[in-house]
Protein backbone atom coordinates (compact mmCIF):
# COMPACT_ATOMS: atom_id res chain seq x y z
CA UNK A 1 0.00 0.00 0.00
CA UNK A 2 1.48 3.33 -1.07
CA UNK A 3 1.37 6.61 0.87
CA UNK A 4 -1.70 7.93 -0.97
CA UNK A 5 -3.71 4.83 -0.12
CA UNK A 6 -2.68 5.06 3.53
CA UNK A 7 -3.74 8.72 3.73
CA UNK A 8 -7.10 7.88 2.14
CA UNK A 9 -7.55 5.06 4.62
CA UNK A 10 -6.83 7.43 7.53
CA UNK A 11 -9.48 9.84 6.28
CA UNK A 12 -12.13 7.15 6.05
CA UNK A 13 -11.20 5.80 9.48
CA UNK A 14 -11.59 9.32 10.92
CA UNK A 15 -15.13 9.50 9.59
CA UNK A 16 -14.46 12.05 6.86
CA UNK A 17 -16.64 11.98 3.76
CA UNK A 18 -13.91 11.19 1.25
CA UNK A 19 -16.10 9.68 -1.44
CA UNK A 20 -15.13 12.34 -4.02
CA UNK A 21 -11.41 12.16 -3.23
CA UNK A 22 -9.22 10.17 -5.62
CA UNK A 23 -5.60 9.12 -5.37
CA UNK A 24 -4.46 11.97 -7.63
CA UNK A 25 -5.84 14.52 -5.15
CA UNK A 26 -4.13 12.76 -2.26
CA UNK A 27 -0.80 12.78 -4.10
CA UNK A 28 -1.08 16.53 -4.61
CA UNK A 29 -1.53 17.04 -0.87
CA UNK A 30 1.42 14.74 -0.19
CA UNK A 31 3.65 16.83 -2.48
CA UNK A 32 2.47 20.01 -0.79
CA UNK A 33 3.31 18.55 2.65
CA UNK A 34 6.71 17.15 1.53
CA UNK A 35 5.56 13.54 1.96
CA UNK A 36 4.27 13.93 5.53
CA UNK A 37 1.26 11.60 5.63
CA UNK A 38 -0.18 12.99 8.88
CA UNK A 39 0.05 16.60 7.65
CA UNK A 40 -1.45 15.65 4.29
CA UNK A 41 -4.36 13.85 6.00
CA UNK A 42 -5.05 16.89 8.21
CA UNK A 43 -4.90 19.32 5.28
CA UNK A 44 -7.17 17.15 3.15
CA UNK A 45 -9.63 16.76 6.03
CA UNK A 46 -9.71 20.57 6.44
CA UNK A 47 -10.44 20.97 2.73
CA UNK A 48 -13.26 18.41 2.90
CA UNK A 49 -14.85 20.24 5.82
CA UNK A 50 -14.45 23.56 3.99
CA UNK A 51 -16.05 22.22 0.83
CA UNK A 52 -18.92 20.74 2.81
CA UNK A 53 -19.55 24.06 4.56
CA UNK A 54 -18.91 26.61 1.79
CA UNK A 55 -20.01 24.58 -1.26
CA UNK A 56 -17.49 26.22 -3.63
CA UNK A 57 -18.83 24.27 -6.63
CA UNK A 58 -22.00 26.38 -6.30
CA UNK A 59 -20.20 29.67 -5.63
CA UNK A 60 -21.60 32.75 -7.33
CA UNK A 61 -20.09 36.21 -7.60
CA UNK A 62 -22.72 38.62 -6.35
CA UNK A 63 -20.96 41.65 -7.84
CA UNK A 64 -20.81 40.14 -11.35
CA UNK A 65 -24.44 39.07 -11.04
CA UNK A 66 -25.34 42.75 -10.66
CA UNK A 67 -22.79 44.10 -13.15
CA UNK A 68 -20.47 41.81 -15.18
CA UNK A 69 -17.89 44.59 -15.40
CA UNK A 70 -17.18 44.27 -11.67
CA UNK A 71 -14.37 41.74 -12.26
CA UNK A 72 -12.60 40.39 -15.30
CA UNK A 73 -10.66 37.38 -13.96
CA UNK A 74 -11.37 34.63 -16.48
CA UNK A 75 -10.02 31.54 -18.26
CA UNK A 76 -8.72 32.56 -21.68
CA UNK A 77 -7.07 29.43 -23.08
CA UNK A 78 -4.87 26.38 -22.61
CA UNK A 79 -1.06 26.32 -22.84
CA UNK A 80 1.21 23.77 -24.52
CA UNK A 81 0.90 21.27 -21.64
CA UNK A 82 -2.88 21.48 -21.35
CA UNK A 83 -2.88 23.84 -18.36
CA UNK A 84 -5.72 26.38 -18.14
CA UNK A 85 -4.52 29.98 -18.38
CA UNK A 86 -6.30 32.53 -16.17
CA UNK A 87 -5.92 36.23 -16.97
CA UNK A 88 -6.97 39.46 -15.23
CA UNK A 89 -6.20 43.19 -15.53
CA UNK A 90 -6.76 45.77 -12.80
CA UNK A 91 -7.91 48.52 -15.17
CA UNK A 92 -10.79 46.39 -16.48
CA UNK A 93 -12.47 45.80 -13.09
CA UNK A 94 -14.69 48.51 -11.65
CA UNK A 95 -15.42 46.80 -8.30
CA UNK A 96 -12.11 46.23 -6.51
CA UNK A 97 -12.83 47.56 -3.02
CA UNK A 98 -14.79 44.55 -1.69
CA UNK A 99 -12.53 41.61 -0.75
CA UNK A 100 -15.53 39.30 -0.12
CA UNK A 101 -16.82 39.73 -3.68
CA UNK A 102 -13.30 39.28 -5.04
CA UNK A 103 -12.98 35.96 -3.19
CA UNK A 104 -16.34 34.81 -4.56
CA UNK A 105 -15.17 35.55 -8.10
CA UNK A 106 -11.81 33.84 -7.54
CA UNK A 107 -13.49 30.75 -6.09
CA UNK A 108 -15.87 30.57 -9.06
CA UNK A 109 -12.96 30.83 -11.52
CA UNK A 110 -10.86 28.15 -9.78
CA UNK A 111 -13.84 25.77 -9.69
CA UNK A 112 -14.40 26.36 -13.40
CA UNK A 113 -10.73 25.57 -14.09
CA UNK A 114 -11.02 22.36 -12.05
CA UNK A 115 -14.17 21.30 -13.93
CA UNK A 116 -12.47 22.18 -17.21
CA UNK A 117 -9.49 19.90 -16.46
CA UNK A 118 -11.85 17.06 -15.52
CA UNK A 119 -13.71 17.51 -18.82
CA UNK A 120 -10.49 17.45 -20.83
CA UNK A 121 -9.35 14.29 -19.03
CA UNK A 122 -12.73 12.62 -19.67
CA UNK A 123 -12.49 13.13 -23.44
CA UNK A 124 -8.87 11.94 -23.54
CA UNK A 125 -7.19 15.27 -24.29
CA UNK A 126 -3.77 16.17 -22.97
CA UNK A 127 -4.34 17.79 -19.61
CA UNK A 128 -2.33 18.77 -16.56
CA UNK A 129 -3.48 19.09 -12.96
CA UNK A 130 -2.47 22.73 -12.43
CA UNK A 131 -3.01 26.12 -14.05
CA UNK A 132 -1.22 29.36 -14.95
CA UNK A 133 -2.25 32.74 -13.54
CA UNK A 134 -1.38 36.00 -15.37
CA UNK A 135 -2.04 39.24 -13.45
CA UNK A 136 -1.69 42.50 -15.39
CA UNK A 137 -1.05 45.38 -12.97
CA UNK A 138 -1.95 48.14 -15.44
CA UNK A 139 -4.41 50.43 -13.65
CA UNK A 140 -3.27 49.31 -10.20
CA UNK A 141 -4.25 51.89 -7.58
CA UNK A 142 -2.66 52.13 -4.17
CA UNK A 143 -5.89 53.45 -2.67
CA UNK A 144 -8.11 50.70 -4.09
CA UNK A 145 -5.88 47.65 -4.40
CA UNK A 146 -3.59 47.69 -1.34
CA UNK A 147 -6.04 46.06 1.05
CA UNK A 148 -3.95 43.22 2.58
CA UNK A 149 -7.13 41.30 3.40
CA UNK A 150 -7.74 40.43 -0.26
CA UNK A 151 -4.23 39.01 -0.68
CA UNK A 152 -4.41 37.09 2.62
CA UNK A 153 -7.85 35.69 1.75
CA UNK A 154 -6.50 34.58 -1.63
CA UNK A 155 -3.53 32.86 0.02
CA UNK A 156 -5.84 31.00 2.42
CA UNK A 157 -8.14 30.04 -0.45
CA UNK A 158 -5.26 28.61 -2.46
CA UNK A 159 -4.44 26.36 0.51
CA UNK A 160 -7.52 24.32 -0.47
CA UNK A 161 -6.08 23.94 -4.00
CA UNK A 162 -2.56 22.65 -3.25
CA UNK A 163 -0.17 22.08 -6.14
CA UNK A 164 -2.70 23.60 -8.53
CA UNK A 165 -0.69 26.74 -9.26
CA UNK A 166 1.98 26.06 -11.84
CA UNK A 167 3.07 29.63 -12.52
CA UNK A 168 1.96 33.10 -11.42
CA UNK A 169 3.08 35.88 -13.77
CA UNK A 170 2.91 39.44 -12.34
CA UNK A 171 3.17 41.94 -15.21
CA UNK A 172 4.28 45.53 -14.53
CA UNK A 173 3.88 45.30 -10.75
CA UNK A 174 4.61 48.77 -9.27
CA UNK A 175 7.01 49.43 -6.41
CA UNK A 176 4.16 50.18 -3.99
CA UNK A 177 3.01 46.56 -4.34
CA UNK A 178 6.12 45.35 -2.53
CA UNK A 179 4.54 46.08 0.87
CA UNK A 180 1.47 43.96 0.12
CA UNK A 181 3.60 41.16 -1.32
CA UNK A 182 5.81 41.16 1.79
CA UNK A 183 2.71 40.57 3.94
CA UNK A 184 1.47 37.77 1.69
CA UNK A 185 4.91 36.18 1.39
CA UNK A 186 4.84 35.28 5.09
CA UNK A 187 1.86 32.94 4.66
CA UNK A 188 3.17 31.26 1.50
CA UNK A 189 5.38 28.19 1.55
CA UNK A 190 8.60 28.05 -0.39
CA UNK A 191 7.11 25.96 -3.18
CA UNK A 192 4.33 28.45 -3.91
CA UNK A 193 6.61 31.47 -3.57
CA UNK A 194 9.05 30.01 -6.11
CA UNK A 195 6.26 29.94 -8.74
CA UNK A 196 5.67 33.72 -8.59
CA UNK A 197 7.50 35.63 -11.34
CA UNK A 198 7.73 39.42 -11.74
CA UNK A 199 8.16 40.62 -15.31
CA UNK A 200 7.95 43.94 -17.18
CA UNK A 201 6.03 44.38 -20.42
CA UNK A 202 8.15 44.29 -23.55
CA UNK A 203 10.72 41.78 -24.73
CA UNK A 204 10.97 40.12 -21.30
CA UNK A 205 7.22 39.49 -21.21
CA UNK A 206 7.16 38.17 -24.78
CA UNK A 207 10.02 35.78 -24.06
CA UNK A 208 8.42 34.47 -20.88
CA UNK A 209 5.01 33.90 -22.50
CA UNK A 210 6.61 32.20 -25.48
CA UNK A 211 8.25 29.62 -23.20
CA UNK A 212 4.93 28.07 -22.09
CA UNK A 213 2.10 29.42 -24.32
CA UNK A 214 1.13 28.24 -27.77
CA UNK A 215 1.47 30.64 -30.68
CA UNK A 216 -2.24 31.65 -30.85
CA UNK A 217 -2.38 32.08 -27.07
CA UNK A 218 0.82 34.16 -27.06
CA UNK A 219 -0.57 36.51 -29.70
CA UNK A 220 -3.86 36.80 -27.83
CA UNK A 221 -2.23 37.65 -24.48
CA UNK A 222 0.04 40.33 -25.94
CA UNK A 223 -2.83 41.84 -27.95
CA UNK A 224 -5.13 41.81 -24.90
CA UNK A 225 -2.57 43.59 -22.73
CA UNK A 226 -1.96 46.19 -25.42
CA UNK A 227 -5.70 46.78 -25.87
CA UNK A 228 -6.28 47.11 -22.12
CA UNK A 229 -3.77 49.99 -22.07
CA UNK A 230 -5.77 52.05 -24.57
CA UNK A 231 -7.83 54.96 -23.21
CA UNK A 232 -11.00 53.88 -25.01
CA UNK A 233 -11.11 50.59 -23.05
CA UNK A 234 -11.00 52.17 -19.58
CA UNK A 235 -13.75 52.91 -17.05
CA UNK A 236 -15.84 49.85 -17.90
CA UNK A 237 -16.27 50.60 -21.59
CA UNK A 238 -14.90 47.22 -22.67
CA UNK A 239 -17.29 44.27 -22.36
CA UNK A 240 -14.95 41.30 -22.26
CA UNK A 241 -17.69 38.63 -22.25
CA UNK A 242 -19.13 39.67 -25.63
CA UNK A 243 -17.61 38.63 -28.98
CA UNK A 244 -15.93 41.26 -31.12
CA UNK A 245 -14.46 41.43 -34.61
CA UNK A 246 -10.70 41.24 -34.79
CA UNK A 247 -9.36 40.65 -31.30
CA UNK A 248 -11.92 38.66 -29.30
CA UNK A 249 -11.65 39.62 -25.58
CA UNK A 250 -13.32 36.37 -24.48
CA UNK A 251 -10.21 34.29 -25.10
CA UNK A 252 -8.01 32.51 -27.59
CA UNK A 253 -9.76 31.38 -30.79
CA UNK A 254 -9.04 27.65 -30.44
CA UNK A 255 -10.23 27.72 -26.84
CA UNK A 256 -13.52 29.38 -27.83
CA UNK A 257 -14.23 26.46 -30.18
CA UNK A 258 -13.55 23.82 -27.51
CA UNK A 259 -16.34 22.28 -25.38
CA UNK A 260 -14.59 23.45 -22.20
CA UNK A 261 -15.38 27.10 -22.97
CA UNK A 262 -19.01 26.46 -22.07
CA UNK A 263 -17.92 25.64 -18.49
CA UNK A 264 -16.48 29.11 -17.86
CA UNK A 265 -18.10 32.18 -16.33
CA UNK A 266 -17.42 34.12 -19.53
CA UNK A 267 -19.71 31.82 -21.50
CA UNK A 268 -22.46 32.04 -18.87
CA UNK A 269 -22.33 35.85 -18.90
CA UNK A 270 -22.94 35.84 -22.67
CA UNK A 271 -26.24 33.94 -22.36
CA UNK A 272 -29.49 35.88 -22.96
CA UNK A 273 -30.61 35.59 -19.33
CA UNK A 274 -27.26 36.87 -17.99
CA UNK A 275 -27.12 40.29 -16.28
CA UNK A 276 -26.32 43.22 -18.54
CA UNK A 277 -24.07 46.17 -17.89
CA UNK A 278 -25.67 49.40 -16.77
CA UNK A 279 -26.89 51.28 -19.91
CA UNK A 280 -25.84 54.68 -18.56
CA UNK A 281 -22.24 53.49 -18.25
CA UNK A 282 -21.84 52.79 -21.97
CA UNK A 283 -20.44 55.50 -24.23
CA UNK A 284 -22.77 57.04 -26.83
CA UNK A 285 -20.73 55.56 -29.69
CA UNK A 286 -21.43 51.97 -28.60
CA UNK A 287 -24.66 50.28 -29.60
CA UNK A 288 -26.43 48.30 -26.86
CA UNK A 289 -25.54 44.61 -26.81
CA UNK A 290 -22.35 44.91 -28.89
CA UNK A 291 -18.73 44.84 -27.79
CA UNK A 292 -16.21 47.49 -28.61
CA UNK A 293 -13.86 46.82 -31.50
CA UNK A 294 -10.70 48.45 -32.72
CA UNK A 295 -12.55 49.95 -35.72
CA UNK A 296 -15.17 51.62 -33.50
CA UNK A 297 -13.15 53.01 -30.66
CA UNK A 298 -15.05 55.71 -28.73
CA UNK A 299 -13.22 58.82 -27.73
CA UNK A 300 -12.50 59.24 -24.05
CA UNK A 301 -14.49 61.81 -22.12
CA UNK A 302 -11.35 63.74 -21.26
CA UNK A 303 -8.10 63.73 -23.27
CA UNK A 304 -5.51 61.57 -21.60
CA UNK A 305 -2.22 60.21 -22.83
CA UNK A 306 -1.88 56.49 -23.44
CA UNK A 307 -0.73 54.75 -20.31
CA UNK A 308 -1.35 57.77 -18.08
CA UNK A 309 -2.91 56.88 -14.76
CA UNK A 310 -5.89 58.67 -13.32
CA UNK A 311 -4.25 59.10 -9.91
CA UNK A 312 -0.64 60.30 -9.93
CA UNK A 313 1.62 58.38 -7.59
CA UNK A 314 2.50 61.50 -5.57
CA UNK A 315 -1.15 62.35 -4.94
CA UNK A 316 -1.99 58.80 -3.96
CA UNK A 317 1.00 58.68 -1.63
CA UNK A 318 -0.03 61.92 0.07
CA UNK A 319 -3.64 60.81 0.51
CA UNK A 320 -2.64 57.40 1.80
CA UNK A 321 -0.24 58.96 4.31
CA UNK A 322 -2.92 61.42 5.49
CA UNK A 323 -5.61 58.81 6.10
CA UNK A 324 -4.04 57.35 9.28
CA UNK A 325 -3.46 60.87 10.63
CA UNK A 326 -7.10 61.81 10.05
CA UNK A 327 -8.12 58.85 12.18
CA UNK A 328 -5.48 59.04 14.89
CA UNK A 329 -5.67 62.77 15.67
CA UNK A 330 -9.29 62.69 16.99
CA UNK A 331 -8.55 59.49 18.89
CA UNK A 332 -5.50 61.09 20.50
CA UNK A 333 -7.52 64.15 21.52
CA UNK A 334 -10.18 61.93 23.11
CA UNK A 335 -7.54 60.01 25.03
CA UNK A 336 -5.95 63.22 26.32
CA UNK A 337 -9.34 64.62 27.38
CA UNK A 338 -10.27 61.38 29.14
CA UNK A 339 -6.91 61.27 30.90
CA UNK A 340 -7.28 64.87 32.11
CA UNK A 341 -10.81 64.22 33.39
CA UNK A 342 -9.68 61.09 35.20
CA UNK A 343 -6.79 62.99 36.77
CA UNK A 344 -9.09 65.73 38.06
CA UNK A 345 -11.61 63.19 39.30
CA UNK A 346 -8.98 61.36 41.30
CA UNK A 347 -7.96 64.67 42.93
CA UNK A 348 -11.60 65.48 43.77
CA UNK A 349 -11.63 68.68 41.72
CA UNK A 350 -14.35 67.80 39.23
CA UNK A 351 -17.55 69.79 39.95
CA UNK A 352 -15.97 71.77 42.80
CA UNK A 353 -14.37 75.20 42.89
CA UNK A 354 -10.68 74.68 43.30
CA UNK A 355 -9.24 76.50 46.33
CA UNK A 356 -5.75 77.80 46.28
CA UNK A 357 -3.76 76.17 49.01
CA UNK A 358 -0.86 78.05 50.62
CA UNK A 359 2.42 76.73 49.58
CA UNK A 360 4.34 75.03 52.30
CA UNK A 361 7.94 75.87 52.61
CA UNK A 362 9.91 72.78 52.18
CA UNK A 363 12.70 72.31 54.61
CA UNK A 364 15.97 71.87 52.97
CA UNK A 365 17.91 68.77 53.49
CA UNK A 366 21.27 68.98 55.21
CA UNK A 367 22.94 68.46 51.87
CA UNK A 368 20.95 71.39 50.37
CA UNK A 369 21.50 73.95 53.18
CA UNK A 370 23.77 76.89 52.57
CA UNK A 371 27.18 76.66 54.26
CA UNK A 372 27.62 79.01 57.30
CA UNK A 373 29.15 82.40 56.60
CA UNK A 374 32.85 82.65 57.23
CA UNK A 375 33.82 84.85 60.27
CA UNK A 376 35.40 88.26 59.53
CA UNK A 377 39.14 88.23 59.40
CA UNK A 378 40.90 89.17 62.70
CA UNK A 379 42.91 92.44 62.73
CA UNK A 380 46.61 92.00 62.43
CA UNK A 381 48.46 91.77 65.72
CA UNK A 382 50.90 94.64 66.44
CA UNK A 383 53.77 94.55 68.89
CA UNK A 384 53.25 96.70 72.07
CA UNK A 385 56.18 99.07 71.41
CA UNK A 386 55.12 99.70 67.84
CA UNK A 387 51.57 100.33 69.04
CA UNK A 388 52.69 102.96 71.51
CA UNK A 389 54.67 104.80 68.84
CA UNK A 390 51.74 104.80 66.41
CA UNK A 391 49.44 106.11 69.15
CA UNK A 392 51.89 108.95 70.03
CA UNK A 393 52.14 110.06 66.40
CA UNK A 394 48.37 110.05 66.08
CA UNK A 395 47.95 112.28 69.11
CA UNK A 396 50.49 114.77 67.79
CA UNK A 397 48.76 115.04 64.43
CA UNK A 398 45.43 115.61 66.19
CA UNK A 399 46.93 118.43 68.35
CA UNK A 400 48.47 120.21 65.37
CA UNK A 401 45.19 120.04 63.45
CA UNK A 402 43.33 121.50 66.48
CA UNK A 403 45.75 124.47 66.71
CA UNK A 404 45.12 125.39 63.07
CA UNK A 405 41.37 125.28 63.64
CA UNK A 406 41.73 127.72 66.58
CA UNK A 407 44.11 130.25 64.97
CA UNK A 408 42.47 130.34 61.52
CA UNK A 409 39.52 132.60 62.54
CA UNK A 410 41.91 134.89 64.40
CA UNK A 411 43.97 135.37 61.28
CA UNK A 412 40.87 136.34 59.31
CA UNK A 413 39.80 138.88 61.95
CA UNK A 414 43.17 140.62 62.00
UniProtKB/TrEMBL annotation:
GO MF, one term, reads:
phosphatidylinositol transfer activity
UniProt protein name: CRAL-TRIO domain-containing protein
SUPFAM superfamilies with a match to the protein in the record: CRAL/TRIO domain, CRAL/TRIO N-terminal domain
Lineage of this protein's species? Eukaryota, Sar, Alveolata, Dinophyceae, Suessiales
Q: What InterPro entries does the database record attribute to this sequence?
A: CRAL-TRIO_dom (IPR001251), CRAL-TRIO_dom_sf (IPR036865), CRAL/TRIO_N_dom_sf (IPR036273), PI_Transfer_CRAL-TRIO (IPR052578)
Q: Where is the composition biased (Basic and acidic residues)?
A: 388-401
CRAL-TRIO domain location is 75-229
- CDD domains membership: SEC14
Q: Which Gene3D superfamilies match?
A: CRAL-TRIO lipid binding domain
Residue ranges, compositional bias (Pro residues): 372-382
Signal peptide extent: none
Region Disordered: start-end pairs: 273-308, 352-401
Amino acid sequence: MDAASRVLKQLRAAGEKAGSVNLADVRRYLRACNGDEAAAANALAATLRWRQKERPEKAKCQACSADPRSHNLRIVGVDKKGRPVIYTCFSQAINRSNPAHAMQHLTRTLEDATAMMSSMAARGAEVAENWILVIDFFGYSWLLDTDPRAALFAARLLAHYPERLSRCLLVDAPAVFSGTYSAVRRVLNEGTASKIVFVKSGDALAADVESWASEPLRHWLLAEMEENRQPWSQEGRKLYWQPAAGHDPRGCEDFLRSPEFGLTLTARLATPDAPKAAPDARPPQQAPGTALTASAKPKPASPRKVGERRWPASRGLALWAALPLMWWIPQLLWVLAAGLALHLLCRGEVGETPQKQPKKRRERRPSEREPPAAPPPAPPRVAPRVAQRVDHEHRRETRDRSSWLVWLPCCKLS
